[in-house]
Design a protein that fits this description.
Number of strands: 11
CATH class of the largest domain: Alpha Beta
Helix content: 40-55%
CATH topology of the largest domain: Rossmann fold
CATH superfamily of the largest domain: Vaccinia Virus protein VP39
Oligomer: single chain
Number of helices: 11
Radius of gyration: 21 Å
Structural class: alpha/beta
Mean pLDDT: 90
Shape: globular
CATH architecture of the largest domain: 3-Layer(aba) Sandwich
Strand content: 15-25%
Distance between the termini: 44 Å
Bound molecules: S-adenosylmethionine
Length: about 300
């Protein structure tokens, strides 16, 4: 039976707000110049590895503009200077990265990966006779790790002794806050199979009509943490059996992709699996990993 509940205001209404919103502090005619675009895109590349091509100038202009207003400065030059100050480095850099990262995601996105997971990967990993460790790397607002949790719960129902844990990380504190909250508009849960909706989602009522929330037992299975792929060492002290890093490296250049692949490779347990997005490719993999499909690889 569908569990229905009105989400309590305390948990449901928490919002990740921007600091004091100084509307109109910036002149509307002030646009990001080519020089400013190259300064900001260099900074974003250095800090987050995100490679913004000049065609993204209008997009960057729009996204940064919101931060200028929030901080209360009137030009891109002033905002850039502020980002170099200790306060800017400590507080604003994270919020600037929140604003410029692209977070599109869905439940059961690229669904073939989940078929391969249950049909091939999990039966092979079960032989290890211990908990399966999964990492959703670049998890955005949580749809990917919660999909993984649903799939794992189903699999574990018919394999009683199997346990699992899911680590989900992202650069953006904004998306992580949404992911922890785990409340989604009804339109977002359309890809979730009906039987899973009944088992793993709570339907909102009253002021929460039109939303679903992931059930607590699933929320408890996912540990969300902030992690920047550009960090020299990842603060993860266990080897992973499965890494999902999908629709992330598409924003990186080849050099950054290669460095990230090395870090993932080190983080994988022997025989572990790496999933990347359907439109992505990683040339460095060949030779080091066995190819199970165009975007699924196993560490030799
Ligand atoms: C398009 S979403 C993909 C979400 C999910 N993996 C999927 O396939 O639906 C890409 C995510 O990568 C994150 N990201 C971008 N650069 C990052 C970095 N340097 N370190 C960690 N996460 C990063 C973004 O914040 C964003 O949430």
């Amino acid at each position: 039976m569908l569990m229905a509940q009105i989400f309590s205001k305390k948990t449901g209404d928490a919002e990740v707000g921007l600091p004091g919103d100084h509307q109109g502090a910036m002149e509307d005619h002030c646009q990001l110049s080519d020089l400013e675009f190259s300064k900001f895109s260099r900074l974003i590349y250095d800090v987050a590895g995100i490679n913004l091509q000049p065609v993204k100038k209008t997009m960057l202009d729009g996204r940064l503009r919101r931060r200028l207003r929030a901080v209360g400065v009137s030009s891109f030059a002033e905002y850039f200077k502020y980002l170099q100050t200790p306060e800017g480095q400590e507080r604003e850099m994270v919020l600037m990265l929140d604003a410029v990262s692209t977070n599109k995601t869905d439940f059961f996105r690229e669904a073939k990966h989940f078929d391969l997971l249950t049909g091939q990967v999990l039966p092979a990993l079960m032989r290890k006779n211990r908990q399966i460790r999964i990492w959703s790397a670049g998890c955005s607002t949580g749809e990917e790790p919660y999909t993984l949790a649903m799939v794992m719960e189903e699999f574990c129902e018919s394999h009683k002794n199997l346990g699992y844990s899911i680590l989900a990380t992202d650069l953006s504190t904004d998306v992580l806050a949404k992911a922890r909250l785990a409340i989604y508009e009804d339109s977002k849960i359309e890809p979730v199979p009906t039987t899973y909706r009944y088992k793993y989602l709570l339907r909102g009522e009253g002021s929460r009509r039109g939303y679903h929330r992931v059930a607590p037992r699933l929320r408890r299975k996912v540990n969300f943490q902030r992690l920047n792929f550009m960090d020299e060492h990842f603060a993860i002290n266990t080897e992973m059996d499965i890494i999902f890093c999908r629709n992330v490296i598409i924003y990186f250049d080849q050099q950054t992709q290669a460095a990230l692949f090395e870090k993932f490779y080190r983080q994988l347990a022997p025989g572990g699996y790496l999933f990347i997005g359907h439109s992505e490719s990683l040339h460095e993999i060949d030779g080091k990993m066995r190819r199970l499909g165009p975007t699924v690889f196993q560490k030799k």
